[in-house]
């Protein structure tokens, strides 16, 4: 074992949440009388939390009041529908069970709101994940390192014992800010070329590759 702990991003890394994010985004936009977005546009907008997703999705001249209304509509809709079309990526469950069996400590760190992270972790990870941290007051979102450091504190591990796994440029920057190596997965929301352009050097083409790399 190179490491004792693995910290995972959630959306685009462990769970394929894109369709539910897209549907909630368009529900929120339509409820505010704003034009809807395509699935591929929402794919590009995610990664920095729900507020940034909504900021990117609304027209540039949208007033702060309407933007806040849109955010509230998204959040209310997503909390009810966050599992309608969401699932683990193929092979992820097997990966997590293998890591758990080998004694790795595991955490999820996500810019998704804490309620959503808690619900998805409870539904999909069945006690395999030791710590699940989402967006909440008092802790800066990724790519700031605070969430990752809090996860390491709760796991009881040092940075030299930990590796980060994610699918985006935000994850690469988060890992760098926390002083961790990063494994970039290729089944998520960003392409290999995009990740290489943002400094990625270690890749997992399928979940079982993560087990080999840690």
Brief characterization of the structure:
The chain has 214 residues and is an alpha/beta fold. The chain has helices at residues 18-31, 39-45, 50-57, 64-81, 92-101, 114-124, 146-155, 169-178, 192-197, 207-213; strands at residues 5-8, 15-16, 87-88, 105-113, 131-135, 162-166, 182-185, 203-204.
What is the approximate shape? globular
In CATH terms, the superfamily of the largest domain is HAD superfamily/HAD-like
Secondary structure tally: strands: 8
Instruction: Tally the structural domains.
Output: 2
Structural class: alpha/beta
What labels describe this entry?
214 residues, alpha/beta, Rossmann fold, DNA polymerase, domain 1, 2 domains, six-stranded parallel sheet, two-stranded antiparallel sheet, 10 helices, 15% strand
């Amino acid at each position: 074992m190179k490491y004792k702990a693995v910290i995972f991003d959630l959306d685009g890394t462990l769970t394929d949440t894109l369709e539910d994010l897209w549907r909630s985004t368009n529900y929120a936009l339509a409820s505010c009388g704003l034009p809807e977005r395509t699935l591929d546009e929402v794919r590009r907008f995610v990664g920095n939390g729900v507020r940034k997703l909504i900021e990117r999705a609304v027209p540039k001249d949208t007033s702060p009041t309407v933007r806040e209304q849109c955010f509230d509509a998204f959040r209310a809709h997503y909390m009810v529908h966050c599992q309608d079309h969401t699932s683990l990526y193929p092979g992820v469950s097997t990966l997590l069970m293998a890591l758990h069996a080998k004694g790795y400590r595991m955490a999820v760190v996500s810019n998704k709101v804490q309620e959503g992270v808690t619900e998805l972790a409870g539904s999909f990870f069945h006690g395999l994940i030791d710590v699940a941290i989402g967006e909440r007051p008092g802790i800066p979102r990724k790519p700031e390192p605070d969430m990752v450091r809090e996860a390491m504190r709760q796991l009881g591990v040092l940075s030299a014992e930990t590796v980060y796994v994610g699918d985006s440029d935000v994850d690469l920057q988060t890992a760098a800010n926390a002083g961790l190596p990063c494994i970039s997965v290729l089944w998520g929301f960003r392409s290999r070329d995009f990740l290489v352009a943002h400094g990625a050097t270690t890749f997992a083409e399928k979940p079982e590759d993560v087990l080999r790399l840690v």
